[in-house]
Write a structure and sequence with these properties.
By secondary structure, the protein is α/β, with parallel strands linked by helices. It is built from 12 helices and 13 strands. It is globular, with a radius of gyration of 19 Å.
Length: 358
């Protein structure tokens, strides 16, 4: 890690801006109940989700949402595309296998001749991407980096399977990373994986290992996401809780020190179970899933965007995520700017509406 020439301390990668994009179409639980055997009450009781956004329009994929988020981020922070040195995109729903979605995002926003690539770590993608993108800043190889998390989950969800279709939505959100000017920024991060979890979350067909796309695999609905809910619930709760405890302990944090817990938005019950295990009050838990569902790699930056106006310089945040693979990890971040002032520039970083009382 480089040292800051002014104070001799380490160069830290700081989030200096955040912006998101949400598709216009709102799919409510009532709409889903016309497609599959479910109800608003059933979904809310089990997940806390009331609605989610779905990207409509021919030829629109993850890169469309991500590019809109990046355009908004550049405008909001007064950053020209030529100033960006590298762009990392976390996604499991790329527009296509080749080229990468990051390449397509760069083309759409006018970024030329920079490094750009995708990261695939399922719902942990943003935390994995944060570890990668921050190292460009910390080593001095980049002055400005963009990390975008985006997924069009509706493209791989079976709307005849109520175990998955009720959970997911489409969205993208991006953050700008720069060397910290005030000492705040990313303080610590840890990542984990366990490939044995593949049996509980996977897309059975379409890869190079087994079941390349054929008429038969399509007919058998093998290209949709499979999720073993009970197994994933247990694994997510246990491993995210352990990861949060580890990062809190090794950074000598108390629970009072933590201003916000920013978890991947998988399921309200999971978020509450993790908070209870760790001892974090529920009012400190960022929650947007009631409005957007699980947007995979977009959930954490989407939370930051929604809560931006409530974030103050120096606030201590703990991110945590868990995804298919399994993959999981946590990050300790000290917020680097006045979120309320930044949010006023676009009116987008508004206080999030809380989950209605049940």
């Amino acid at each position: 890690m480089l040292l800051r020439p002014d104070k001799g301390g380490p160069v830290r990668a700081a989030i200096t801006g955040v912006h998101g994009y949400l598709p216009e179409h709102v799919m409510t639980n009532a709409e889903l109940s016309k497609m599959v055997d479910t109800s608003d009450q059933w979904i809310v009781e089990r997940t806390g989700i009331r609605e989610r956004r779905i990207l409509k329009g021919e030829g629109l994929g993850t890169s469309h949402m991500a590019a809109e988020a990046v355009k908004g981020l550049l405008e909001k922070t007064g950053t020209h595309p030529d100033e960006i040195d590298v762009l990392v995109c976390a996604t499991i729903t790329p527009d296509m296998i080749i080229p990468s979605t990051a390449n397509l995002i760069c083309d759409a926003v006018g970024m030329r001749h920079i490094g750009s690539f995708d990261v695939q770590a399922a719902c942990s993608g943003f935390v994995y991407g944060l570890d990668i993108a921050s190292q460009y800043i910390e080593t001095g190889r980049a002055k400005k980096a963009i990390l975008v998390g985006g997924d069009k989950m509706s493209s791989m969800i079976d709307y005849q399977d109520r175990t998955t279709c009720i959970l997911f939505g489409d969205a993208a959100a991006a953050v700008l990373l720069e060397p910290s000017e005030n000492g705040y920024g990313l303080r610590d991060i840890e990542l984990h994986s366990d490939g044995a979890g593949m049996q509980h979350i996977h897309q059975l067909a379409g890869g190079s290992r087994t079941n390349p796309p054929t008429a038969a695999t399509i007919e058998k609905r093998m290209h949709y996401l499979y999720l073993n809910g009970p197994a994933v619930f247990r694994a997510a709760t246990e491993r995210m809780s352990g990861s949060v405890r580890e990062i809190v302990t090794r950074n000598n944090l108390t629970l009072d020190d933590i201003k916000w817990f920013v978890p991947h938005q998988a399921n309200k019950r999971i978020l509450e179970a993790i908070a209870d295990r760790v001892g974090i009050p529920h009012e400190k838990v960022m929650m947007t899933l009631q409005k957007y569902g699980n947007t995979t790699a977009a959930t954490i930056p989407l939370c930051l965007w929604e809560y931006e106006s409530q974030l103050k310089e120096g606030d201590k945040l703990v991110f945590a995520a868990f995804g298919g693979g399994y993959t999981w990890g946590s990050a300790y971040v000290e917020w680097a700017y006045d979120g309320a002032a930044a949010a006023k520039k676009t009116g987008k970083g508004r206080p999030v509406s809380q989950v209605p009382a049940e």
